[in-house]
Specification:
Strands 1, 2, 3, 4, 5, 6, 7 and 8 form an 8-stranded antiparallel sheet that branches. Strands 25-26-28-29-30-31-36-37 form an 8-stranded parallel β-barrel, surrounded by 4 helices. Strand 22 and strand 23 (321-322) form a beta hairpin. The longest helix has 18 residues, at 437-454. With 679 residues, the chain is α+β, with helices and mostly antiparallel strands. It is 14% helix and 31% strand. Residues 1-29 form the signal peptide. It comes from Catellatospora aurea. Pfam families: CBM_4_9, fn3, Glyco_hydro_18.
Length: 679
């Protein structure tokens, strides 16, 4: 949310972690980069992603050549070079760049950038290598959709290292039997101690020569191998892969059909499917995890959480291998608590503590069309205190503000009508970082005090800005380690337990903190903002406790959907693609972990009430097109729903009720009857 109607925050500007480390001067000054000014007329030994790098004769900073990177909407034209360095040593990386959004840095370390340089501008990054570090990858790149950039005279100053060997030649396959595969490859350049043969991340063989035979394999099984060379300085990058299948195959059974949910309980889901010819057994999967196996055509998956959403596939197998997985079916265990909300709800934020240019609206004057009213905002006394305070808008800013007694009485009147009133924590100006257990405990006690004082129905989490982030290496949404994430999860679980099953918990993250996690995840990605996708572990931990997740589909840059296309805010397509990601679930970038689908009744999306309320305003017709696609699979504009239809889709959220009043109630007058008419 934003307190200032036109103070927009585009996700594009958040994607790059920018910083220059202040370290000692390099031990010596000698440019370690080959072809630093591209004067050879070729890129070598630089490599550029997407084939988007080239050497040009103009513009140049010095000499007759420079690098040109043609960044596209899907590739930032990253050009890099690997250099041997010495451990525990200071280095200085400098370069001259020109163009929009140009970056200079090292993989996994410091970087810097310029948002726009009409002429060549020098960038500098100082860093110190790690205790065992023997190589570093230097890079420069532009940004998605920002056009061409140029770079020249790039220098890495400091003492050189011995260096790891060069990358071996791609392996080739020799003799194959039922239980073995023979491999050979081209030798690496440089000093080589030996070679490691990998299958995925597992070492299958270590040899000193350039060939080996992998044995002990199963008949008719598929394998993919890569090779890396190593010496005392470290290991080279892996070669390209080669795939082979052991002999002894007969026929893999066909993919099972007719998968269906036959029953649910509080803790189990029962399934059935049609038999596959030649199958000796079946495996049931949730995502990539096998959850059941057997020889019959039914299975019951048990030990599940009450009121939790699941999606299953089934595959047949025999001695020849496993079939492809069937299409997925979804199910939700029983035992869901009746929240008292309508099937399709209208949710809005009320400027209770400020006016924001749209004018103050008394609680008693909020129309009955609003089912959840989020009081904006409870804010901390300091960023890391965890001490949340809420006050009504002061008279100087809101001359028509009601008394506290009238405010509380109006809340009671709304609740008597079946409406839910929540305290929303955070907002654009309310940075909340629970960096310690003390802050966590203060958060719980101070939020409880607000809820108790005003008799509220629950809590809305609207953490924005730098409230949530991921420490480097925190790569599993199921087991987060970053304190601000861990402490928030603990605090919300405590509040849920304190107030019981009727406690309403909603969240309003921006797309940057949720859907962007499909492409970038802050705990594992190199060179991206460590806040990318940082709500995902919180949502995952509370996936059975969240009443409604209404992502802010506004103030957002382009976001990649499950169709691997970028979608832009302000039209039905954006809301369809972003919401479908929550209904289908998605793999979290560079982690090997899947963010699971949410229940349909937990999913809503947010839009600005009017053009002045935020970037990404969407007309009522476009909003309703998106909802009809999600609920009925109608008028989806060519987009295919990966998560299937969602007849229990919870509804619509807006920033804000005040802005809706300012624009003659366009949002609520359009959408409240529309939602009520949905099946």
């Amino acid at each position: 949310m934003t307190r200032r109607p036109l103070a927009l925050s585009a996700a594009l500007s958040l994607l790059v972690a920018v910083g220059v480390l202040a370290v000692a001067t390099p031990a010596s000054a000698a440019n370690l980069l080959a072809n630093p000014g591209f004067e050879t007329g070729t890129l070598s030994p630089w490599s550029c992603t997407g084939g988007l790098g080239s050497v040009v004769g103009t513009p140049v900073r010095s000499g007759t050549k420079a690098l040109q990177g043609a960044a596209s909407s899907s590739d930032n034209a990253k050009c890099s070079q690997t250099v041997a360095v010495q451990p525990n040593t200071a280095y200085a990386l400098t370069g001259w760049v020109r163009g929009n959004y140009v970056y200079l840095g090292i993989d996994g370390g410091a970087s810097t950038w310029t948002p726009g340089a009409a002429a060549f501008t020098q960038l500098t990054v100082n860093f110190t290598t790690g205790a065992s570090q023997t190589s570093v990858v230097v890079y420069t790149h532009g940004w998605y959709g920002q056009g061409t950039y140029f770079a020249d005279d790039i220098s890495l100053d400091g003492p050189g290292g011995t260096g790891v060997p060069g990358v071996p030649g791609n392996p080739s396959v020799g003799t194959i039997t039922n239980t073995s595969i023979a491999l050979s490859w081209g030798a690496s350049s440089g000093t080589v101690t030996g070679y490691r043969v990998y299958e995925g991340t597992t070492v299958r063989a270590t040899v000193t020569g350039t060939s080996t035979t992998i044995t002990g394999l199963a008949a008719c099984s598929a394998h993919t191998y890569t090779v890396a060379a190593y010496n005392a300085s470290g290991e080279s990058a892996k070669s390209g892969g080669v795939s082979a299948t052991t002999t002894g195959c007969t026929t893999v059974p066909p993919t099972p059909t007719g998968l269906a949910v036959t029953g649910t309980t509080n803790t189990s889901v029962s399934l059935s499917w049609s038999a596959s010819s030649g199958a000796t057994g079946y495996r049931v999967y949730e995502g990539t995890t096998q959850v059941a196996t057997g020889t019959g055509t039914t299975a019951t998956v048990s030990g599940l959480a009450t009121c939790s959403a699941h999606a299953y596939t089934v595959a047949a197998y025999n001695a020849s291998g496993e079939s492809a997985k069937s299409g997925a079916v979804s199910a939700t265990t029983t035992g869901c608590v009746n929240t008292g909300l309508p099937k399709h709800a209208l949710i809005g934020y009320l400027h209770a503590s400020f006016a924001n240019g749209s004018g103050y609206l008394r609680m008693a004057d909020v129309p009955s069309s609003w089912d959840i009213i989020n009081l904006a905002f409870g804010e901390p006394t300091s960023v890391t205190s965890g001490d949340i305070r809420f006050r009504q808008c002061p008279v100087a800013e809101c001359p028509n503000v009601e008394s506290e007694a009238d405010f509380i009485a109006a809340i009671r009147a709304k609740q008597a009508q079946g409406k839910k009133v929540l305290i929303s924590i955070g907002g654009a100006n309310g940075q909340v970082q629970l960096t310690s257990t003390a802050a966590r405990d203060t958060f719980v006690s101070s939020v409880s005090a607000i809820i108790d004082k005003y008799g509220l129905n629950g809590l809305d989490i609207d953490f924005e800005g730098h409230s949530l982030y991921l420490n480097a290496g925190d790569g599993d949404i199921r087991n987060p380690t970053t304190p601000v994430i861990v402490n928030l999860i603990s605090a919300l679980r405590t509040l849920k337990a304190r107030y019981g099953s009727g406690f309403i918990l909603t969240m309003a993250p921006e797309t940057f903190f949720v859907q962007l996690g499909y492409q970038f995840y802050g705990g594992t990605c190199s060179g991206c903002d460590n806040r990318a996708g940082s709500y995902l572990p919180v949502i995952y931990a509370l996936r059975n406790d969240i009443t409604v997740l209404h992502v802010q589909d506004y103030n957002s840059g382009p976001i990649m959907g499950l169709d691997n296309q970028y979608h832009n805010m302000g039209a039905a397509d954006f809301h369809i693609a972003m919401t479908d990601m929550l209904a289908a679930g998605f793999p979290v970038a560079n982690t090997g972990v899947t963010f699971p689908a949410l229940r349909e009744d937990q999913i809503a999306f947010g839009v600005p009430a009017a053009v002045s309320a935020g970037g990404g305003y969407t007309t009522p017709a476009q909003v309703q097109q998106a909802v009809n696609c999600l609920v009925k699979n109608q008028n989806c504009g060519g987009y295919t729903l990966r998560g299937g239809t969602s007849p229990d889709f919870r509804g619509l959220m807006t920033w804000s009720i005040n802005w809706d009043r300012y624009y003659n109630w366009e949002f609520s007058n359009s959408h409240e009857p529309f939602l009520n008419a949905l099946p």
